[in-house]
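Batch 3, record 17
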Amino acid sequence: MREFEYYKVKNLKEAINLSKKFGKNKRFLAGGTDLIVRLKDNLIKEENIIDIKNIEELKGIKEVEDEIHIGSLVTFSEIIESAILKKYSPLIVEASKKVGSPQIRNKGTIGGNICNASPAGDSIPPLFCEDAKFFLESTTGSRVVNIEDFFKGPGKTILKEDEILVKIIVKKWKENESGFFNKLGQRNALTIAIASSCVKIKKSNEKIDDIKIALGSVSPTVVRAKKVENILRGLKEYKKDEIIKICDEVKEEIDPITDVRGSREYRIEVSKYLVFEALNNLLNIRG
Amino acid sequence: MKKIKIDFILNGTEITDEVPVNITLSEYLRDYLKLTGTKEGCSKGECGACTVIIDDKIFDSCLILIPEVDGKDITTIEGISKDDLTPLQNSLIEEGAFQCGFCASGMVMSLTNLLSKNEKPSLEEIRESISGNLCRCTGYKKIIDAVIKLTKAII
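Prediction for the assembled complex:
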């Protein structure tokens, strides 16, 4: 592994100040499941590693009125075991179960998954469906950013040089809400998504009052399929052929690449069926 | 390379050492302490051969930077039993669960951790517990059979 300077910080203020000092020439170590692999592969140019793992302000899952605040250092195992999230934000729990392996889930953090900004980050599609907000802090103060404004491309976010993701804020689910996450990989464990879809629906009787669809691994960032959402919103009856036809419209909203995991064409085709599978689990689709 | 002081428990023994910051736990175990029971396969957290137990949870030791172990309680395959093999290890041998054996220590660590929390796991729980451990020769069945046989015996 290449050489670097290692700093263990005790609190958020220390992390931010050190971060300001190093500017671009630093990386944060949270879970490290990506960073350490990249250090070994000599893909990290930055010379300073700031270990933020001991910062209490970045830990824990808390209920705050009608919101849930998830610390950026919360691991996927902690998410899966969280009674609060199971009850009030189950899509994040379902997606976290699909991350890597038990060993990876014990170490990898939701904040790391978000800040690495991979279009294949498993926790990101559900956060789009939840309209998550990110609480960021820097030397100049704090700000709250909507998830839709956060990602700029693969590995790129709006985070400033001295800014850190403190927590993720989602609204608690209401009784008439339901959702479905599915990830297509080459196997069940230890796999990076070829494509993934996450659907959250708010229904009254059988009518779709609101719907959010997010797709992973099929664009430079995770994307919402808003055109498809608009077509589906307000529907009351669901025929299989018609729903598949509507799902086919996702091709207008994604822009996948061809890579070792799958071709552009395959990803476009499979996205349609991932969304259909989700809808089929959530709606009473006939015929 | 700058060195860092680490203080941790390894297989029940307190260890204090000064090490370069840019090595992983698996490298430290194998190259510095010569504890070669922990295997390193992929070096990127995909195979689970280097699995160790830290504070009652399993981790890929190839993805742990050595400064991270400070203050931790670590168990490797060498610390699983004092003298004899554990009932789990005996059951794996009886079932012929391993051929080349490269995944064995990682599998034993994951399964030991499972059984320490859950004496009577379901088939699904057994499979889930080793979902981060790849085996390329016996194909999991005999490994799972060995756990089923053992846990039924426990009942």
